[in-house]
Fold:
Amino acid sequence: MIAKELETRQLPVTLLSGFLGSGKTTLLEHILKSQDHGLRIAVIVNDMSTLNIDATLLTNHKVSQTKEKLIQLQNGCICCTLRGDLLAELARLTKQRGVDYVVIESTGISEPLQVAETFTAEFSKAMLDAEEQFMDEDGGDEESKRILTEIVNMGGLHTLAKLDTTVTVIDAFNLLANFDTTEFLSDRYGSEEIVPEDERTISDLMVDQIEFADVVIVNKIETVSEDTTAKIRRLIGLLNPDAKVLESSYSRVDVREIIGTGRFNFLKAASGAGWLRSLHEMTVQNTGLGKRMAPKPETLEYGINNFVYSARRPFHPRRLFSLLHDKFIVLQSSQHAHDDGEEEGEDDEDEDGDEDMEDSEDLDDFDDFEQPDEAVILANKRSHPAFGPLLRSKGFFWLATRPMQFGEWSQAGGMLTVGCGGPWFAEVPDEAWPEDKDVRESIERDFQGKWGDRRQELVFIGEGLDPHAVTVLLDECLLDDADMKRWERVMKNKKLSTAEKNEKIGKMWEDGWEDWPEPGEEHEDYIPPMY
Structure:
């Protein structure tokens, strides 16, 4: 029995994530009915809908007659404003000696990372600060503030409770189709459930939930063929190599695989170390373009494969846009748009939308490019010999006209999100680097030649993906030799300041990508990522 193994009073928690209809509620009922764990379980149910359908099912179920305690947060959305309620509720549960374990059923639109942050000391402090501000302005909840203060004084929620296992339930029948959609969450779930500022896409959220999970349950397995099942397992294995993959019908799994496993590690999950493992497995390979750095060869098992594109030369901004604009719905993250909206006040926010995610039709300044509608773009991607098989890509890129900063790239299906990631480490003062010796050595290993850690580094996952075809297309977007000489001439000019170099290079080529923050305008607590 799992109960005998849980000896500490640090209350363990399992988080259930997954789209609406994936089978989370059925799994929750299965957990509560199971005799295999021997635990008194408290359940926190989060439901965005005004009808509280999920909560009604649970409340009216026979399980409600058992000793398990069911808790429903009011108007619950743990991925947004009510994570503070979650924090307080978990704190209350830790004081109830009749509770051995907690299971949180998240809303279908929640990101597991945000829920996991609830268990960090930093989040507890931030919630207390927010509660104090709310108390000053609107009276607030004195009891919640008292609990939050107590949690902070004890060092954070993690001193009372720990996230034990993160579980994502996916619908086997719809998984691959969700890669092939241009839907935003608001398109699928409606404006009543999604706040106007939420510009997340279905495909992005789906991969977020898979990539963050300790356990992925492929549910409704009876609705797909064995070949499709094998393909799904292979895809999940590439998106999240460390996740345990379970197959189920009607969410029936061995509860010992999802309760009391001790599998969760916040730092590992938050860093995406599993997904980006391919970036650290680079070797010299013979490709169609001669010898170059490439990942260790992957067996094309069940048609799902991956590879890493890397180059030590920047992209020409126009060539890159020309390649992507009619094959992906390009979403661009603008730090300026977000900051400006906050400064200009409520009236301006209503007029401008104050959205930091905009589509390519609104943002690009390449006036001579015709912007196809979404249906055409999706059809173009499906039929494209190189990008048609592409399911997921992620990493960072180097634009010639943005020499001091790297771009972040995240694509799922037909949706591609790009934006400013921050300065290259080559532009970060040594004293601002992380102090950890191993981390510093890892950063230094990325330095090569005169331009430091500047490079293209993108991981691609697809179904029968042709690495050679994708590589050729991206290589054609790089600066040619003549352009590279012009670029280097400016960058090597010691008489020019960083701002002057940026200005000169910015005028060399047309750059219609959305503006990024000026170098040095990044947030003070910004730490460049280390892939």
